[in-house]
Specification:
Low-confidence stretches: none
Strand order of the largest sheet: 3-2-1-5-6
CATH architecture: 3-Layer(bab) Sandwich
Order of helices and strands: HEEEEEEEEE
Number of domains: 1
CATH class: Alpha Beta
Mean pLDDT: 91
Strand content: 25-35%
Oligomer: single chain
Largest sheet: 5 strands, antiparallel
Shape: elongated
Structural class: alpha+beta
CATH topology: minor pseudopilin epsh fold
Number of strands: 9
Helix content: 25-40%
């Protein structure tokens, strides 16, 4: 009697390995997307905290705003494409020549939606050297595919707080 595997046994093993590989890859992709979401949330929170600290330490008003090209601000509440921070040396709340960008962050995943919800100025967050910020409001950070949503609350006193939402609504 010969020792070895039959063709059917070999094909069955290869099929099982293929099936397990597909499920493993899907799980790894989900974990990578979840890590990207966590990174984006932490990056936005760190940007806001750093801008507040920068304003207090330099004595300049520091602004954070949405950006498409990581070099200029756009006037919209959607921050999903990325954002920048800069010191507003002349206090006009615009990025002018001589006011270098001190922080720039690009979008990680097109599924992650970031929306600033604030009255009045719906696009920029302004940090003053006194520790205060403007406007009162919050960021909604959401991923429909991951079924995750967080709120970053901004208080005029300068407090920044992150909470996880129970209901996921990215619209």
């Amino acid at each position: 009697m010969e020792k070895g595997f039959t063709l059917i046994e070999l094909m069955l093993v290869i099929t099982l390995i293929s099936i397990f590989s597909v499920f493993s890859i899907a799980g790894i992709q989900h974990l990578m997307k979840a890590r990207g979401y966590d990174n984006m949330l932490a990056t936005l929170e760190n940007t806001l905290a750093t801008a507040a600290g920068n304003s207090r330490s330099t004595g300049f008003t520091t602004l954070a705003c949405p950006s498409d090209d990581l070099a200029s601000c756009v006037n919209r509440a959607d921050w999903s494409a990325g954002w920048i921070t800069y010191n507003d040396k002349n206090q006009n709340h615009n990025l002018d020549d001589g006011e270098p960008v001190i922080g720039a962050h690009d979008a990680i995943d097109e599924d992650i939606k970031i929306q600033l919800n604030a009255a009045g100025n719906g696009a920029k967050v302004i940090f003053y050297p006194t520790g205060r910020l403007w406007p009162n409001g919050n960021f909604s950070v959401c991923s429909q595919k991951l079924d995750r949503s967080h709120t970053i609350t901004l208080a005029m006193t300068g407090r920044i707080r992150v909470t996880e939402d129970e209901v996921v609504d990215c619209d």
